[in-house]
Write a structure and sequence with these properties.
Length: about 475
């Protein structure tokens, strides 16, 4: 058996469903959904490109493998010389992009476990063989042009051609990334006609690939068509770094203030609708701060911003865990003996209706109808890594944390914990479970379909579809 994982970066599940309803995605419908199904899954926090690819390829949460965001601060390096300071202000958005592979802590990727893997247009390449990483140069050149000039269709067409070229090769796992939906959405709007055309381009590429496999009498592989995050239009930019500077708090930030002298805080933005703050970034202190140590005046000022949906940090004292804050509410999340406990102290910041203590998968289902799906698990996984900020902010709908100065300006974005960023389409040619699923469940599912026995000591955060409740068979057909 063979498997193809197609990642439409930034595809919204509702937009995908509307296009399917209009008959605009006939190949996705026929070759994938009619054989299996389509469901709404949830991604990871921060819901951003690269970071949110980790679950698909490693079956782990980003926080489980040391990647807290697309930008983060290496606390030790930030206290060093000018070269170390630049390195420490990690950003996978530019020339440091390839460092993502080395920064992920040791764990085998799908590429390691399936040696006959080919990947097209991916920032995550760890474990690929010498000929496995396709169009890497075109990805760099066309990707840079697309970022500044909006020429994403040229990049997507190059992906489609490379996919078709690979059709008849002896691969077992193909990973195909289409960046156009995300890229054009950022410049325009998630429902702009040019964005909708990018979905159709992916569908035509799928049709061409299937036709080529069938021409040669080949058996169709299993298909998984997914997205790494949703997106929303941004009405207001609430640049936390500029706001802090305006109130006299020197702030280390990208792109050019990574050498900020006397910085009292560093702001590392992902998406752009989430930001992680690191206090005293030149102190060389490697230990993250807990709630009682975070400057209260700054925290309260940030919580008062309409742009902030919620804030979270590591809890202090013996209770530990993660403290979730909104302006008027406070709760603590802890995990012990396989159960996650949500203890509201004031109000109900995650909207769960009060005290909850549930198993991980039951809590996932319970959160799916809230404004912040899977928030308990996602906040706990993020703060597993010491690299995560002292404080994280998730943006409210329609707002992000970078200024209009960004080139190009982001008119739409993602990165927050809100439903429209966390919900993603998961289409598969295999039977989908009835239970709520996450993007982290794809990797173990693909391993199982490929009949690959993972090493017995392999730790995964995801669960294969077969181990989750499947759709009950209808009694009468
Ligand atoms: Zn994006």
């Amino acid at each position: 058996m063979r498997a193809v994982l197609v990642l439409i970066d930034g595809a919204r599940v509702d937009v995908l469903r509307e296009l399917l309803g209009r008959g605009d995605l006939p190949n996705l419908s026929r070759w994938v959904i009619e054989r299996g199904g389509l469901t709404t899954g949830t991604t990871v926090f921060p819901s951003t490109t690269g970071v949110a690819y980790i679950p698909f390829l490693f079956g782990r949460y980003p926080g489980s493998v040391g990647i807290p965001g697309i930008r983060w601060l290496d606390r030790r390096g930030a206290a060093g010389g000018w070269r170390e300071q630049w390195r420490a202000a990690r950003s996978y958005c530019g020339v440091q992009g390839g460092w993502l592979n080395g920064d992920i802590t040791p764990a085998p990727s799908l590429f390691d476990l399936v040696p006959q893997s080919i990947a097209i247009c991916t920032p995550l390449t760890r474990g690929l063989g010498p000929r496995g990483n396709r169009i890497a140069v075109r990805r760099a050149v066309l990707g840079a042009a697309a970022h500044y000039l909006g020429t994403y269709p040229a990049l997507d067409r190059a992906v489609a051609r490379a996919w078709l070229d690979a059709a008849l090769e002896p691969w077992r796992f193909l990973f195909v990334v289409f960046p156009g939906v995300d890229g054009i959405s950022h410049l325009k709007d998630p429902r702009h006609p040019a964005v909708l055309e990018s979905y159709r381009l992916v569908d035509r590429a799928l049709g061409a690939f299937v036709a080529r496999v069938q021409q040669r009498g080949g058996e169709l592989p299993e298909f998984f068509v997914v997205s790494d995050h949703g997106m929303t239009a941004m009405r207001e930019h609430s640049d936390t770094a500029t706001l802090l500077e305006a109130s006299g708090v020197r702030t280390l930030r990208h792109p050019v203030h990574v050498w900020r002298r006397g910085a009292r805080v560093a702001t590392m933005v992902s998406g752009n609708a989430s930001v992680q703050l690191y206090f005293d970034p030149r102190s060389g202190r490697e230990r993250p701060l807990t709630e009682p140590e975070i400057p209260a005046a700054i925290l309260e000022r940030l919580l008062a911003l309409p742009a902030v949906q919620l804030a979270a940090c590591r809890g202090g004292g013996d209770a530990g865990g993660v403290v979730v804050r909104t302006r008027n509410a406070r709760a603590r999340l802890t995990e012990a003996l396989g159960l996650i406990r949500y203890q509201p102290e004031t109000g109900d910041p995650l909207g769960l209706g009060g005290y909850v203590e549930l198993d991980d998968r039951d809590l996932l289902s319970r959160t799916r109808e809230t404004a912040v799906p899977d928030a308990p698990r996602q906040l706990l996984q993020l703060f597993q890594t010491v690299r995560a900020g002292d404080l994280v902010l998730a943006a409210a709908r329609g707002t992000d944390f970078r200024g209009p100065w960004e080139v190009p300006e982001h008119r739409a974005g993602h990165g927050s914990l809100i439903a429209e960023h966390m919900e993603v389409p998961i289409a598969a040619s295999v039977v989908l479970p009835h239970a709520a699923i996450r993007t982290v469940d794809l990797m173990p599912t693909i391993l199982e379909r490929l009949d690959i026995t993972a090493p017995s000591d392999l730790v995964l955060d995801g669960v294969p579809f077969s181990k989750l409740a499947t759709v009950p068979e209808p009694l009468v057909r």
